[in-house]
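Ticket reopened. Same input as before:
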Amino acid sequence: MSARADSPPLGWRGWLTTDTPRSRAQARLGRAWAGWTGFRRNRLAVAGLLIVVALVVVAALAPLLAPYHPYAQDLGNRLQPPSAAHWLGTDAFGRDILSRLIFGARLTLMIVALVAATAPLAGLVIGTVAGYLGGWVDTVLMRITDIALAFPKLILALAFVAALGPGIENAVIAIAITSWPPYARIARAETLTVRRADFISAARLQGASSLRIILGHIMPLCVASLIVRTTLDMAGVILTAAGLGFLGLGAQPPLPEWGAMIASGRQYVLEQWWVAAMPGLAIFIVSLGFNLLGDGLRDVLDPKGD
Amino acid sequence: MADDNAPLLEVANLRVSFPTRNGVTEAVRGVSFTLGREKLGIVGESGSGKSMTGRSILRLVPPPGRVTADRLAFRGEDLLTASPRRMRAIRGSGIAMVMQDPKYSLNPVMTVGHQIAEAYRVHSRAGAAEAKRRALEMLEAVRIRDPERVYDRYPHEVSGGMGQRIMIAMMLIPDPALLIADEPTSALDVTVQMQVLAILDDLCSQRGMGMVFVSHDLNLVASFCDRILIMYAGRVVESCRASELHAARHPYTRGLLDSLPRLDVPQGDLPVLTRDPAWLTDGAGGGVEG
Amino acid sequence: MANTAMIDIQDLRVAFGQGSDRVLAVDGVSLSVAEGESFGLVGESGSGKSTVLRAVSGLNDEWTGRIAVAGTDQTARRPKGFFKLCQMVFQDPYGSLHPRHTVDRILAEPIAIHGLRDADTRIDRVLRDVGLGPSFRFRYPHQLSGGQRQRVAIARALVLEPRVLLLDEPTSALDVSVQAEILNLLRRLRAEHGLTMVLVTHNLAVVANLCDRLAVMNRGRLVEEMTVDDLRHGAARQPYTLQLLRASQGYDRAAAESFRDYA
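Engineering reply: fixed in the latest deploy. New output:
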């Protein structure tokens, strides 16, 4: 193309945006910076990121932020509406809802982190191996995926929890086991679009093993869409965890899990609406945050944008 | 509206610009030319703005690109201010465009014959039978041996060369006065390329159609067109009669010609083009009269 | 330069598809390329020229016949050592480099696979060899022009110091001025490293520039073999070759009329 209107910026910005990086680290940081610059322009995505960061901060600093102990009962003050002493009111045992929500953020974050660390990873491995190797490996792995996909997710999770016993760890396992198949499908689809690419042929012609090609060449190209999908799925994971909690099969009392809190508030929903509405609002905001973040990441990470 | 005495196409100071993160990038920077009933070649390397010049005539520059010109007129009618409705009428019946890859330009779920007939009916309001008859005639005109059979084929069932002929048939059935061909034969084998060019050549001479032929292939343009514009970095750096291309004077044109490997004489290393920053600013700036 | 054959192909057949969809893409091709020779394989799309190259390179394992490289008969699966002997450069420099790998990573990978030492010196040397300085080492492909990418692809092929370089339309995706630079580079590398080259292309002028000898292919068959000198003097014997020659000399209304399909 023709002349650009301005000269390249100087200083650390210039160092990051240069077209001639002088070290591996500079190249990598420059790439990250370019991604951040793109991400920053999407205001809603930044809002989503802020919500997720806020969740992490609140979870980390819960003992400092919470005005009361999450389990401290005060039966004289049960079902109080929001006030100066209890900003979000109190529940049936007189516990401060705000404090419980703040501690509940830890549980939510743990569920999200555990699911995000297992299901997409399993899907990535299964999808890329099936897609790259093809043949009978592909057939076997994909039929297993199809079978797993055919089960209704919540029912399967219920069955797992029923078999393993209620509790938050089992809820996480149940969610992870039921949510990997879509990741495997995405990873396989991405793999199929790149496996015939010349750069994969070139790697084969250097004598690279299938393992090296899958790990070093194919997975990095699938990771982007999986991260996006994972982020978008996190809202669903939080809701499923809340649903299990609501049914009494997830976190057990007195754990301040948000879904369980809604469940315990449902009998007062008409008279003391805040008992159920506050955790509902928390779930809504955090889910929205993950969705907005996912949308923004999709624009930045899409490898076709290069 | 149309003025028969006006030149087919007048372009003066055409500019195409794209806003980017780092300011505005100008893909075309002040191109001017006038076209009569002739074959005008626009040659240049990738990024020279040759394709954008062709596209901007039909206002097909993808957003957020911006097209400005002192004058951009087809038979005296201003194309920049024409309504979208009027533009649709002009595209097709007045000016047609053929692009490089027929696979992307043909509808994959419609038989090729149906698409050609449809293109005819949009502009002529003819009946179905009449449209089919005309479509078959057109397929014959682009030298498809068995038009009846090809008529019922789907785009994926035809070869690249035949696909491009079908594309040309579809574009030319409304009898346009001007054809813009953007690398129409670059994806084709050389022998098929020659046959497709022969078809275009005949249609130009028989129907008195004008043609803008955008290509990167100097030899091809020199042997096929009447007149040539050589573009570099969004400007026309030189224009000449096609037959006189070998006598081109601009160092860029000379450099391009010299860097072509030759069949007739043994060569060692090829001369390499050194780009002079002055080419970005000097030169004719596009002031070329037909 | 010895007269032994670096590449020897006898009665090569490659078929795609099964049953009634079976297509013979290469139909009994035999040819031989001497050590240090630069050999052109010319034809139109579907002639099978790229398929021959992919079978030699080891990318395609569905073939029958005999392929010998450096005197060793090859089977469908190649030992790791084969790739140190024979490397390939692809047509599209935009598709042949991994979009998320830096030049450094692209060039370091073959060194790591073959367990070679001095990765840094090798990378610096090969980058200089293809006319890119060390300043290009940590760039991503999207920060390079088409010609620079093709140089990186050539560097990747050369980093293992092979004796045979297979080139699949290495310049047809590039502008003519860049094509000239790449052709000059390939000629210099061939002389400096004593490479044996097989160049697949549809462009007769490119073959004339870079090769000593060529074979013309059509519909999976070898039409004829000749020297580049013969090609220059129009001393082709087969009508198909003559037609190809005529078509590559620019547009000619009368010539276009005379073209026909050769089966």
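The CA atoms of residues 6 and 260 of chain C lie 36 Å apart. The domain at 5-258 of chain C is CATH 3.40.50.300 (Rossmann fold). Please confirm and we'll close it.
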